[in-house]
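User: Second chain of the day. Same drill as before.
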Amino acid sequence: MEKEEAIDRLENRNLPLEEVKAIYEAFPDDMQVVGQVAMNLSLRTSVYEPEKSAHPVMTELLVALSDAEDMGTRWAVAKNPHTPPEVLVKLAKDEVNLVRALVATNPNTPASVLQGLFGDEKIVRDGLSGNPNTPAKLLKILADDADKMVRMRVAENPACPEEVLEKLMKDGDANVAKAAEVNLSKRKEQA
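Assistant: Same format as last time:
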């Protein structure tokens, strides 16, 4: 198979994962193909239905792609909800802050790693605000962030402590206050 044909085939998110793997194995050093493999995995992954796209071959490819030279490929691996925790631990030390920021958003990232990312750059810390695995003590701190989008993600976070939500319901930004109110209402309905 020629490179151009491989790239065209990878544009199909329904391409069987075994074929995606075969293409990756045929072009492991071609960053354009490797990037397209990562994009294919991203396109077939739903954050709303993560179990739908879970597959051992996907996990195997994500592990392999995590070592790619291309930042875009590592970025795609860092945000994928099927990326194994041990890979996220490694990517949490990536030299590129955007990769680390996406590790901070990934629900598979262990809480201990998220704790470590809190001391990172602002873009990385901001990623913690919406992650349901972020420790409550960090969410409490992020609830006071000057950036309203950080406070919004904390208010929407399903793991946000109730007392933080109650505080955010009084936030000066109406959207943050509303998000906290909605989150708290959903919890009370489910209880």
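The chain has a mean pLDDT of 92.

User: Great, on to the next one.
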